[in-house]
Design brief:
Helices cover about 50% and strands about 15% of the residues. It starts with 11 loop residues before the first helix and ends with a helix. By secondary structure, the chain is α/β, with parallel strands linked by helices. The strands form four sheets. Strands 10-11-12-7-13-14 form a six-stranded mixed β-sheet, with helices on both faces. Strands 4-9-5-6 form a four-stranded mixed β-sheet. A two-stranded antiparallel ribbon has the order 1-2. Helix 6 packs across helix 8 and helix 8 runs antiparallel to helix 11. Strand 13 and strand 14 form a beta hairpin.
């Protein structure tokens, strides 16, 4: 599982997947997980491989144990990157890191031994980890760490500071009367008293007095063992363990993100994927980016169904503005992209096509620095998409050719649709041109609904039915503020 050097796909912004990935990876910056989300898979078996791992990691107990392992590994890295000036301080921090590493790896191996996993990925790692923990190298690390710890545990010293002179010596053989003195004077305690204990700095750096070097002279065997340990185990972190810690964060991060949505009643499923069958279906699906925001606001999330059968390839979505059409288009794209990552997708069940690339064309405003007009920009972008797309691609089109006349929009849309049919592309097309919704056997018409008793209220449900022919008229009326609702509001009661 590699994800190095992959940049964000061009479609991310249009589909709001950049927002989703930012939310999923938040708090995990040290793992650089974005690359995993920028690298969709092209093989159905690779998708199923990841889905198996996700399923294994669904139970809370195994996630907690792996999270505990990762927390300790972060402590290891923090200890290793500390910039310290003194030799024995550096070596002590290194030794603490090695001890923590040995402990957390042993605990992870024991935890996996006690948990039944079924995925090929975790079964393979479990076997590799078992071999590693049983290896001579790891056992040597643990045994030598125990010996060094025993030696350092016996280090004790007296520190005397007098007249600018610091003296370090072994402890006096005289008994320590501290406890007896405290018990004798305890009866004289009257309420709270001032604390005269000195507070030492918690900073890891030592001063220049060199006390630690003098302690090492008092206990040469213990510190010689520390020296030898650091030399022999300079690279104690196993590359496979380090790779697992990073890669498992991809799964944990996504599961934690969708868990918040699941807790609000939103379903997720593992889609069946195919790289040849283009009959697709998703039940009760939704825009995952929008859902993340609405859940935070306490607003209900509307769910919709998607289905294409037989020769059907293009879903043409029409209806009133602000009715959920663009959200529906984003949902279609998100479904296919997340499925290609091997991730759970929004919905109760899904059958999806494993595409090679996902193209989007969302309308955008003209830029002053761009000498092209909006129509020219639409045409050039459409040409680039159709030149690069293959029969295995998915294309999402949202409100293209809105800057021209209806007659020209119909003509241009017809030509684009003809090319889409030639390439046998799966597509969702949000448009005001109702005519293309019934141009052939490959197109399916879906319409965003309003309340029958109040056409000004959107339900955000997108249903499969013929276009009503009002989309373009409604768009023009809204543009010039002469819609039924606007006119009604202007008239006196």
């Amino acid at each position: 599982m590699t994800a190095e050097g992959r940049s964000e796909p061009p479609s991310f912004g249009d589909l709001n997947l950049d927002q989703v990935v930012a939310a999923i990876t938040s708090g995990r910056g040290e793992y650089d997980l974005a690359g995993f989300f920028h690298s969709p898979l092209g093989d159905p078996d690779a998708v199923r491989f990841r889905q198996e791992v996700f399923r294994d990691l669904e139970p809370q107990d195994i996630r907690e144990r792996i999270t505990s392992f990762a927390t300790q590994m972060r402590s290891v890295r923090r200890l290793l990157v500390q910039k310290l000036d003194y030799r024995y301080q550096r070596e002590t921090r290194f030794f603490e890191a090695a001890e923590t590493y040995a402990r957390c790896v042993s605990e992870l191996a024991s935890a996996l031994d006690g948990i039944q996993v079924r995925s090929r990925g975790l079964l393979w790692f479990k076997a590799c980890l078992s071999d590693y923990v049983g290896s001579a190298a790891f056992n040597s690390l643990c045994a030598e760490a125990a010996e060094v710890r025993t030696g350092l545990a016996g280090v004790a010293y007296n520190l005397r500071i007098s007249a600018g002179r610091v003296t370090v010596s072994r402890p006096d053989p005289a008994p320590d009367y501290t406890a007896q003195i405290e018990a004798t004077f305890e009866r004289f305690r009257r309420g709270s008293v001032r604390d005269y204990l000195a507070t030492f700095s918690v900073e890891p750096d030592l001063n220049h007095v060199g006390i630690l070097d003098r302690i090492a002279l008092l206990y040469p065997d213990a510190f010689a063992a520390l020296d030898a340990f650091c030399d022999r185990h300079r690279l104690f972190v196993d590359p496979g363990v380090a790779a697992f810690e990073r890669e498992v964060q991809f799964y944990l991060a996504h599961l934690e993100f969708i868990e918040r949505l699941r807790s609000r009643g939103l379903p997720f499923c593992y889609p069946r994927v195919s790289d040849d069958a283009k009959a697709i279906r998703a039940r009760e699906t939704f825009d995952i980016a929008l859902a993340g925001r609405l859940v935070g606001e306490g607003t209900p999330v509307v769910r919709n169904d998607v289905e294409l059968q037989g020769p059907e390839r293009v879903i043409v979505v029409t209806g009133p503005n602000q009715g959920g059409k663009t959200t529906f288009a984003r949902t279609f794209g998100q479904l296919h992209y997340l499925a290609a990552l091997g991730c759970p997708v929004p919905g109760t069940e899904a059958d999806l096509f494993l595409c090679d690339r996902l193209f989007t064309h969302f309308g955008r405003e003209e830029q002053l620095a761009d000498l092209r007009g909006r129509l020219e920009d639409d045409l050039l972008r459409m040409r680039a998409i159709l030149d690069e797309a293959t029969p295995s691609s998915v294309v999402i089109l949202n409100e293209v050719f809105t800057s021209t006349t209806l007659l020209d929009a119909v003509y241009l849309s017809t030509e684009v649709l003809r090319r889409i049919e030639e390439l046998d592309l799966l597509s969702v097309w949000v448009t005001f041109v109702d005519e293309i919704a019934a141009m052939g056997k490959t197109t399916v018409s879906m319409v965003s609904n309003v309340l029958p008793e109040d056409p000004d209220v959107r339900t955000f449900k997108i249903t499969r039915r013929p276009a009503d022919g009002h989309a373009y008229a409604a768009a023009i009326a809204a543009k010039y503020s002469v819609s039924y609702q606007r006119l009604k509001a202007r008239l006196p009661a």
